[in-house]
Structures are given as C-alpha cells and as structure tokens.
Amino acid sequence: MLNEYRFFDPDPAVRRIAYELYAGVKDLPIISPHGHVDPKLLADNMPFPDPAELIIIPDHYIYRMLYSQGIRLEALGIPTRDGSPVETDHRKIWQIFAEHFYLFAGTPTGAWLAHEFVEVFGVTEKLNSANALQIYDRIQKKLAAPEFLPRALFERFNIEALSTTDAAGDSLIQHKKIREAGWKGRVIPCFRPDAVVNLEDEKWRDSLQELAQAVGFEINSYRSFIAALEDRREFFKALGATATDHAVVIPYTHELSQHDAEAIFQRARQNKTSDDDAAQFTAHMLMEMARMSVEDGLVMQIHPGSFRNHNEFIFKKFGRDKGGDIPLQTEYTRNLHALLNRYGNDPRLTLIVFTLDESTYSRELAPLAGHYPAMKLGPPWWFHDSIEGMTRFRERVTETAGIYNTAGFNDDTRAFLSIPARHDLSRRIESNYLARLVARHIIDMEDARRMSRALAYELVKKAYKLG
Amino acid sequence: MLNEYRFFDPDPAVRRIAYELYAGVKDLPIISPHGHVDPKLLADNMPFPDPAELIIIPDHYIYRMLYSQGIRLEALGIPTRDGSPVETDHRKIWQIFAEHFYLFAGTPTGAWLAHEFVEVFGVTEKLNSANALQIYDRIQKKLAAPEFLPRALFERFNIEALSTTDAAGDSLIQHKKIREAGWKGRVIPCFRPDAVVNLEDEKWRDSLQELAQAVGFEINSYRSFIAALEDRREFFKALGATATDHAVVIPYTHELSQHDAEAIFQRARQNKTSDDDAAQFTAHMLMEMARMSVEDGLVMQIHPGSFRNHNEFIFKKFGRDKGGDIPLQTEYTRNLHALLNRYGNDPRLTLIVFTLDESTYSRELAPLAGHYPAMKLGPPWWFHDSIEGMTRFRERVTETAGIYNTAGFNDDTRAFLSIPARHDLSRRIESNYLARLVARHIIDMEDARRMSRALAYELVKKAYKLG
Amino acid sequence: MLNEYRFFDPDPAVRRIAYELYAGVKDLPIISPHGHVDPKLLADNMPFPDPAELIIIPDHYIYRMLYSQGIRLEALGIPTRDGSPVETDHRKIWQIFAEHFYLFAGTPTGAWLAHEFVEVFGVTEKLNSANALQIYDRIQKKLAAPEFLPRALFERFNIEALSTTDAAGDSLIQHKKIREAGWKGRVIPCFRPDAVVNLEDEKWRDSLQELAQAVGFEINSYRSFIAALEDRREFFKALGATATDHAVVIPYTHELSQHDAEAIFQRARQNKTSDDDAAQFTAHMLMEMARMSVEDGLVMQIHPGSFRNHNEFIFKKFGRDKGGDIPLQTEYTRNLHALLNRYGNDPRLTLIVFTLDESTYSRELAPLAGHYPAMKLGPPWWFHDSIEGMTRFRERVTETAGIYNTAGFNDDTRAFLSIPARHDLSRRIESNYLARLVARHIIDMEDARRMSRALAYELVKKAYKLG
Q1: DSSP SS3 for C166
Q2: Of B169, C178, C316, C428, which is the most exposed, with the fewest CB atoms less than 10 Å away?
Q3: CATH match of A12-46+147-463 with 3.40.1390.20
C-alpha cells in the first residue's frame, strides 16, 4: 500500500503544507519533454508481452543493481550482441528479480516500482521470493486487457505531450505512423545528432551515410554536412519536434573557422581523426547547434559528463546503455564561455543544461542560469532523479537562480510504465521543498501555490515551447 | 510582516532553542569587517536620492536575477560605460522591479528585501505591480527625513565597525573626511592591491602610476614596487585599517627569487607579460603579502575563484561588478602549500580564506583551518551567503575545524540598507544550527550560549583585530 | 551524562523509530576490520600509563585541533624526532587539554570523548579547567585495576575481530605473541605494502631491504619483488589476515608490461626514479595487487587522496601522522578504469574504495559500486567519520548503490579506548538514517530492521570475509 503522505518530511507542519500543495498539482497533465520511450510502442499499440519484458529487460536502472550483486545479465535475459544464448524463461527472470527485490529498498527504483505495482496493476503486496510467480501471473493477465495497451495507458497516465529521442538520420517512421493513426496523443521526436557529431564514434561514417540517405544528397563537405543538419531539423520540426539534445563528454564550446571545420571534417572522412580533432569538432558543433536554435527556435539541451560504456566487457557483450555508464567531474564556467558569450544574451535561444556532477549546482550552474537570459537548468538527471537528489538540487540552486531559471521536470525514462511514478515522485518532492520554505516563513502560501504549479507544469511547458 | 520565528526549523524543540539563542545575540553590535559600501556615503552624509537609486541600481544581486529573466539592464537604469542612454525615470524602474518581485521568492535577496522594507521603512505589504508606486512614494518620503541620513542609519543599525574596500593607490580622502567630521562612527579602509598585483589587468600600468603618485616616488623596479606597497599599508593602518584583501582566480602561492620577480616586473612594465608571468607574479605576491602581514599585523584575506566579467557583452557595455562574475572550481591543498609552509605556523599571521566552491569546505578548507594556527575560514561568500548556504557551511566545517577556526560573519555588501538584514539572517541561521546540535544532544545549552555569542560577535572581532 | 536519544533527529516520529532500530543493534559484537591500534598493546597486556599517554599523545584528532588554536605540540608531550625536549609532566598536558576542551564542542572527537569518559571511566562531569586534575586522578586510579588492562577492555568492548595495519616487511611478532598467549581475542594483521610500492618514499630502499630479510631471499629484480610480495601475503594470511590496504595519492591504475615494470624497478634501485616512474609504478602495482587478491582471496582496500605531511615543519620535527595530512580532490571514474575493466567483473575480487572527497560519493563512487560486482564502498573516512559526514554518505550513496554495495563501518582508529564510542555513534547515525526513511514511508519497518542489522554487523563481516 502507498501511504498518502509518502516522501514528505515527518514534521507535522511541513507535512500538512506539503500535502496541501501536492493536492493542488497531483492531477495536472504530465509533460514529458525528454525521454527514451520507443515510439514503436505507441505506433503499434500492441499488448506488452509479459512482466519481465515490460519491467526488467529494458530498464538498466534495475539490472545494474542486480548485476552489482553478482547476478549475470544473461540470467536476466538481456540480449547479447552476438546472439549467444540468454535466459528465455521470463518466469525464471522474474523469480530472480523478486528474490533480490530487497536491494532496491531506499532507492528511487524501489519507489517507482511500488507505485507501478499498486497504481497500475493493483498489486499491493511487497514482491518477494514466495509471491513472485503469483504476482507475475496477475500482471500477465492484466497486460492482455485492452486498457493495458500502450495508448490506453498513455491516456490513463494523463500525458499531454511525450518526446522521444531520435538520431539525426532517423526516418521518424514510427512518429509518422502515430500521426497517421488518427490517435490524439501528442508524441513528438527530439533531434539528437550525437552519432554524426562525435567523430570518435566507431560508426561515424555509417551514421553520416544514413544522414545522407535521409536528406537525399551527398555529404562530402562540412558545408553539405551543415546543410543536411539544417534540413533534418526542419523535418523534425514538421513532425512536432520542439527541441534538440546533445550528449558530450566535456561541454567545451569553441568556434572554428569554416576552413578549420572543413579540414577536420575531411580528415574524419578519411579516417584520420585525431583526439584533438574530435574535441574541437564537438566544441564547434555545439556552437553551430546554438546558432541553428537561434534561427529555427528549437530548444537546445546539453547532457554532458557521462563516461559511456565504462565497463568494456558489458559493452562488448551486450552493447550500449546497459548500466555501465559512469559520471565524470564536469566543468561549465570555462567550457560554456564561448557559447554563452555568443548566444547567451539572445532571447531567441533557450539552452537547457543538465549535469551528473552535483558539485556544479551551486558553484557554476545556478550562477550561470541566474544571469544569462538564454540558459535554464534541467532537472536532476539520472542518478540524481531521486528523493534526496531532487531535494539537493532545489536547495543548492534556488537561492541563486530562483525557480524560474529551471526547466521543471523530465522523466528521461525508457520504462513507459514508470512515467506517472516518476512525475508523482517529483511533484511530491517539490511540494515538500516548498512546504519547508513555508514552514520556515521564507515564502508564504500564496508564493508556494504559484511556485508549485510552475514546478509541476508551467515551467516545463514554457521551457520546451510545448504551449 | 516578519514572523519572529522565521528561518528556524519547524520542529518545535529546535525552534524553541533557536529562538532562545537568537534572543541572546540579536541586539549585539554589528561588526562588518569586509564589504563594499562607498565611504563617500558616510563622508557626505547626504539623503539617499530615491528608492530605485538606493535599492536597485547599485545591487547586482537584484538586477542579475531580473536580467536572467529577459529584462535589459538599460531598462533598470544601470549606467553604461559609453554614456549611451538608459532609463532615467526611477518610478518606471521601480515598477518593473515590483512586477518581477516574485522572482526573489526563496532567495536571500528576497529575505533581505523583506527585512529592509519592514524594519527600515515600515512597509509591511509584499511589493507587487499594483502597490509599486504607492510604496515608492512612501519610501521616498522617508528618505528625506534626517533619521534616514546615512550616519543616522549607521547608528540605528548599531554598527560598531564598518570596513570598506580600497585600491592600493586610493587617497582615502573619504576616510579622512569621516575622521575629520568629528563623528564617532568607526569606518575603516581595507587594503586591496589587486589592480597593481594582477599583471593581466588592462589598466595595470595606470594603477601602478596611481600607486606611484600616492607614495610620492617613482616605481621603476620590483624593489620600489614592494617599498610602495609597504608604504601604503602603513598609510592604511594609520587610517584604521586592520586587514588586506586579495582577489585571485587561482590561490596558487609560490615564492620567486628577487631576480625572477624583478625580471617579470620589468617585462610587465614593457607590456611583455606572458600568461605564465602573471600567474607566477600573483603567486609570489601572495607570499609577499603574507610576509608583510607577519611584519605589520594586518589580517590577510584571500577571495579566490571568481571568473570575473564572464559575460563580455555586459562587461563592455556596463563595466565590472554587474552580475556577470561566475565561480570556478578551486583547489586549496596544493595551491596554499607554499604559503602555509612558510607562514602558516606563525602566530603573528591571521589568514582568512574564502571560497565560492562549496565542495572544498569539508575536503580542503576545514582540514587546513583545523590544523594551521594562522588560517581561519571566512563565512559563506556571495552566492552562498544564504539560509541553505550558511547551514551547509557549518555542517561541513564544524566537525573538522570546530567553530573557533572560523571568522564569524561578513556581509560583503554594496547595499548599505541590507547590512542589518544580512546580519540578522546570519544570527538566525547560526542560532538554528546550534539549536539542532542541542536538540540532538551533541552540545548542551551552556556550550550553545557560548558558541552563539562567538559566532555573532566575538569571532569576527578577534579574527579582524577589531577589539 | 549521555542522553539515550543523542544524535537522533529531534522529530518525535523519527526519534522513536531510530531508538527502536538502535536498540536492536547496539549490543551486537564489534567488528573492526581496519584500524591502527598497536598490536603490542594486546600482546603485552600491560596497564595504560596515564590519562595523557592514553588519550592525548597518540591521537592526532585531538592535538591537531589544539595546535590549530596556537598550542605547541611540545607542550602536549608529542615526542620529537631528534629527541629535543617536550613536556613530560602529563598532569600539565592534561590541564591544557581540559582548558581547551570547549574547542571540541560539535565535533566527533567531542562526542567520542564524552562516551569514553562516561562509559569507560564513569566520569560524568564535563572536563574543564577547574576539575581537570581531579578527573585525571580518578582515571589514573582506574587504569591500575585489572579490568582496565587492554585485553579486559577488548572483551568488555565486545570486539569480535580487530585488524591492525602492518608493513609488508613486518615480522608480525606481536601478532604471534597474541596467538601464542592462548588468549581468545581475534586480532589480525592487514597487509599494507605502501613503503615498498611507493618509489618516492625516502626510505624505499630500506623498506625493500626489510622485505628481503623477511622473505629470506634477495630482491634484485621486479620479478623477485613480486615473488616477495606474494610470499608475504601468504604469511599474513597464515596469521589471520583477510585484507590488504593501499594508500595512494591518486588512485590511477594502469598495467605496465613486465619489461617496463622491470626497467622502472631497476631505475629505482639505482636511485634514478623520475616522478613519472613513481606514478606509473604505483598505478601498475594496484593492478598487481588486484591480481593477487583474485588469486589469494585477500580483500583489497584503497585509501587515496591524502596529501601526507602537508605541514613540513611538523613533519620534520615530529614525524608522520601528526595531524598535518590534508585531503585532495580525487578522481575515480577514469583512474579506476583499467583495474575495474580487468578485475571488476570477477566475483573472486572484493575491492573496498574509500574517499576523502565527498563530491565523489554521488558522482563517481555510488555509480561504480552500483554496477561493478567486485567493488564496495568503504564507510565515511577520517574527517568524514562524523554525525553529518555519515549522514551525507548514506544520503548520497544509497539511492544509486543501495546499502548492500557498501562495506559497513570501520573505526580506523589509533585510540583503542574510542572503539566502542565510534561504533556506537555509527550505529546511532545509521539507525537515524533508516528511521528517516521509515518516517517518510520510503521503506517499512521490516526493511529497516533487516538493513539496520546489515549496517551494524553483517555487511562488514561479509565484505572483509570475517565470517
């Protein structure tokens, strides 16, 4: 059972205020402007196959914890790159998950799962070794019902808009299918050109080829590369996109001359890229993306500081996004200097910056967002999308940047079912944060109600131009 | 209206103790050993012109937030360097401020302004679009009265000592005027030679010229440069100074040979300074300043880690200190090694170190201050001079360094009216911090009362030798 | 007097739950798998000489604070390297300590001392200038009694296992004596080969010579060096060791070829080590230590990031471990990459990583430990072994790594008497942390009781293979 006061401070004064604020926002529609749900899910609208396929296999938040405690990914049915066999009995996978469910106590994954079980499936018992298969069967049965089809859940979850994340060369065929289906759900793409911008990506030339096919012209120069990106941004916009997204290791920004950009591009085509080339090109392309955003109005997101595929054994065997990405210390003040000086005073740009390095909240990010008109702070990301993580974010950012230089909440999830759980948790934590301000007489209830609505709904809608 | 329990924890036990501790210190005199009030204010003792001129135009804490939300500085009457026109109707400026007053909810600026309105002007309504001009007029009227003259406010604020911050070549004419006026207020200068120490400052040679004029001899060698600084320190001391202050990007300390210092100095005179020259010279001058402090007893402050004028557009148009300075990651353990090894064991030195990088509190600064007799920690600075910021400081520093290796509170303000608000907030937060220790039986009330008085008054007086 | 609810949150709901959880674990045996108690103490089992010798002189937590406030170490009886005289009247030393006892208010040292005075000696008054010598005499009298002999205290403290820390070439003669005494106390060594691994250690060749004597063969090659280390690990295991420990400045890991390792080793023998040699060799030896741990099953600990002997004046006069070590910013994601890729997926390795840089908890360490099966996080270390420090650790680590990827508690102390105080404080803070989760309905009491027992006893026993 879910306690109605869960996640609020135990102090009665704070709890009462938090509950009142939460009651005012809990039923607002969900806006999900950044995430990794596969659009095929909503294009096909087919029943989810089974609980393991739905909850465990796509969610690296879950299996990274199991892996850390010595459970092999093969035993959890995670598909291998070379097709070598993995567990196919999904009831066995579920049983392992249930036996180790206690590992998630005190983690956001534990909180989200509890919400999914109770609110989506009506399962109120705590999962354990003994009840594992009985709960599996109950969920399995529900998944067959029409009200558990993806679109039905989308509507039940009260999602006003959902953005996926898509490669520059993606055909967006699933997005077209959703539009052509006559279904009213707003599902939009987001332009993420990392694979063609990162010259060190092993598949760079393949991705460039895909991009060329998508635009229908040859990309044999930096100039045509830029033209192709501009072309694709228009195409994404036509299918509803309002934003772009850029993952970089270091958020270094620096403008190259056209001549230097062209020279690096040509070296890359000839497979002669140096490390410095790649770093300079990424830094330059962030500048170019900001320029394009000023021109075409797409909101620009930067997600820096993840050492991708840190565990090479897991990467080689299972591929990307398998729980082996690890954050790095990240610097913003010097790195974003060029971009913010060139475009940060321009009211046409919205730049939303994320971090995995919490030490930058009060030191760099809040001071930057509290000054440059173009810059907004993204919500606590990934490992920090949690009860304590969200609380630290607000406590460290608000005093310098206020709440109006932040961009509301993102769920950033691959786990479709966890969307309402994540937004509910966010709304509870923001309510509790504001309640603590009210209880200490830092703000009054009039302020708190206005801020509460902004944090739950208005800021994200405005920042991502989803009005 | 200001709640008398504001900023205290809502827990009744903590609140009761916090209030009791606060009651014991709230009326102690204010010591303000570091700040940026213009001494001319107290030398001339003329009425403040109007609310916008008093509250908005000199305070970058206020207009950086407005700027971040898209309001141009011209519209706020911030003077341009080239004299190009800005808004001169101060009622219009005030109206914009009032319309955006909600942005400050949850920020220390919001808390300080509330205190100023209520305690200084008796304005108890929350400023908004509708009441803006009526409140403007009420404040305007008060400003004309003799009890709102700067010296009258200084006395009403119960300021025991106020230090300004002054360039090495400053004539200190305003300080002389204050002394000659026969007024009993203690207003003292602080020696801040950054402009002549930083070889990369575009006006370095101008500043050096001013210094030469001030001392009355030519500065054509490193040797005469040092003699000039020593001369000026004596002059500042004669006008009451007890401290020096040094802003550096990186707090690197390193002693050069006389020969190398001279060579760098001569290259600088010939406008041939390299980046490395400037870094080495700054590092060396920190060593020299510590040496002089050992000799003349002036307390040495270091304020490192600010990337000044990050927003070049704002800097070019409006000049320094316009809200465009951004903190940098800062390292102390290696950087202060040379200085602390040379002078850190010397009881004649007091070195007060500040930071904009909170990650150094528990990692570097508390361990250093909890060991070296010469070193004390300055209070949470600038962006961290806030409710959560002060709480984090005490929670991260005290367990390693105790409270007696910290230097009490600084308001560090340009906004004269905010001085009592800032000290009151500090006293409330320190009281609350101590109350939480008492309520958890970590200290008893006898400890807490002694520590409370130290934090509010005694530590700062001792650290800055203002007894 | 010690309040029974001390260190718990004042909120009545949290306090009630915390107390209930604490009651369930407070009497569990103490496991102390990492510390610096001198084994001679338990081998000889002689009475402690006097209160100053017992409490002040061996404890740099205590005298670093006194030193920071201007008290010379000579006055505290800290022995000098050159034998120059120091205070020998221990009653005078105690008097100085008592006069400055107020400095420890709000520090963990203060909390531990209060526990020692009350629980070990029955002294319930707060130490001060007036009662100093009377308390000295009461403690002195007790120390003469048989129930205050080291082994009697070991039993009274309910210590199940205690590990010392020992150099690679140590004869472990004290450990043998303890074993041969027929006493049932479990006291084990821990293999710490820093002195022979760190090529920059001024005594490296002496330490290598000691190692050669210990193994009984000449060490004239990298190959024989490795053989000697393997030999010693077996010897340590035979005397009960279950772990090794490695202090490095930077936790950089990198595997050299045998050829390169041999070349560096030979340069070191000829006193021709470069800085880069030393860094590469340390990085390589961490790889080798992990390989040996995989083979022989010894748990591997890394304690990085301390700038040892920062205060050279203190180091030269008084030697190592005198309170002059200062933490450094530390990077783990890139530095541990080689080691974790080579051995981090191997279930035979247990790697326990510590930090003095709290900014790495949520950014690097929790993500690494929440993924790699071999890696566990050591408890908050040294300056962070405190009420706020432990709380920050759990709040920043648990949401990503859970509690089962952490290694319980270490006291890491030289101060034998403080062992129960430190474990009691840890058990209280962990109970309080869990109580806050329960009170916010993040976990339930069933979870909390299981987690509480794990944190107090089971995790440390399992991680250090002390079952």
Answers
A1: strand
A2: C316
A3: no
Closest-CA residue in chain A for B3?
A441
Question: What ipTM was estimated for this complex?
Answer: 0.98
> Average pLDDT over chain B, rounded to whole?
97
How many angstroms away from the CA of B232 is the closest CA of chain C?
A: 30
Using one digit for the tens of pLDDT, what is the confidence trace for C229-262? 999 999 999 999 999 999 999 999 999 999 999 9
Q: CA-CA distance, A373 to B64, in Å (whole number)?
A: 10
Q: Read off the pLDDT band of C137 (50, 70, 90).
A: very high
Retrieve residue A373's tokens: 């008109």
Cβ burial B125-147 (10 Å sphere, 16+ → b, else e):
ebbeeeebeebbebbbebbeeee
- Chain A partners (3+ C-beta pairs within 8 A): B, C
Cβ–Cβ < 8 Å for B447, C16:
no
Task: Return the structure tokens found at B466.
Answer: 């203002």
pLDDT band at residue B1 under the 50/70/90 scheme? confident
Q: Residue C21 contacts by C-beta under 8 Å, 6 or more apart in sequence?
A: C431, C434, C435, C448, C449, C452
> pLDDT tens, B294-343?
999 999 999 999 999 999 999 999 999 999 999 999 999 999 999 999 99
Chains that touch C (3 or more CB pairs under 8 A): A, B
Q: What is the pLDDT of residue A275?
A: 87
Q: Using CB atoms, pick whichever of C9, C107, C310 lies closest to residue B399.
A: C107
Closest partner residue to C313 among B11, B341, B402, by Cβ?
B341
Residue C275 has pLDDT above 90, yes or no: no
* Architecture in CATH of B48-145: Orthogonal Bundle (1.10)
Q: Report the alpha-carbon distance of residue B405 to residue B379 in Å, rounded.
A: 11
Contacting residues of B for A341, CB less than 8 Å apart? 310-313
Say how far apart CA C7 and CA C10 lie, in whole Å: 9
Alpha carbon distance B234, B89 (integer Å): 45
Beta-carbon separation of B9 and A440 below 8 A? yes
The CA-atom distances, in angstroms, between B308 and each of A35, A70, B193, B326 are: 37, 50, 16, 7
Structure tokens at A154: 């989308």
Query: Which chain A residues touch C370 with a CB distance below 8 Å?
Result: 64-65, 68
Give the separation between CA A358 and CA A365, rounded to whole angstroms.
Answer: 10
Locate tokens 């050096």: which residue? B208
Contact, B207 vs B166, CB < 8 A?
Answer: no
| CATH architecture assigned to A47-146 | Orthogonal Bundle (1.10)
Output the pTM of the full model: 0.98
pLDDT-based confidence at A1, cuts 50/70/90? confident
B372 and C70 within 8 Å at the Cβ level: the answer is no
On the question of pLDDT at C266 being above 90, the answer is yes
Instruction: Judge: C443–A103 Cβ closer than 8 Å, yes or no.
Output: no
- Min Cα distance C450 → chain B (Å) is 25
Binary contact (A367, B107; C-beta < 8 A): no
Q: Note whether C310 contacts B402, CB cutoff 8 Å.
A: no
Residue that has been written with the tokens 């360039």 in this structure? B167
Q: How many residue contacts between A and B have a Cβ separation below 8 Å? A: 129
Instruction: Name the CATH superfamily housing domain B12-47+146-463.
Output: Metal-dependent hydrolases (3.20.20.140)
Query: Using a CB-CB distance cutoff of 8 angstroms, which residues of chain B are in contact with residue A399?
Result: 106-108, 383, 386-389
Where are the domains positioned within chain B? 12-47+146-463, 48-145
Residues 6+ apart with CB under 8 A from C347: A70, C373, C374
Q: Taking residues C203-210, what's their average pLDDT?
A: 96
Q: Report the distance separating Cα B159 and Cα B153, nearest Å.
A: 9
Neighbors of chain B with 3 or more C-beta pairs under 8 Å: A, C
Orientation angle between helical segments C387-401 and B387-401, nearest 10 degrees:
120
Please tell me the distance from the alpha carbon of residue A8 to that of residue A27, in angstroms, as a whole number. Answer: 18
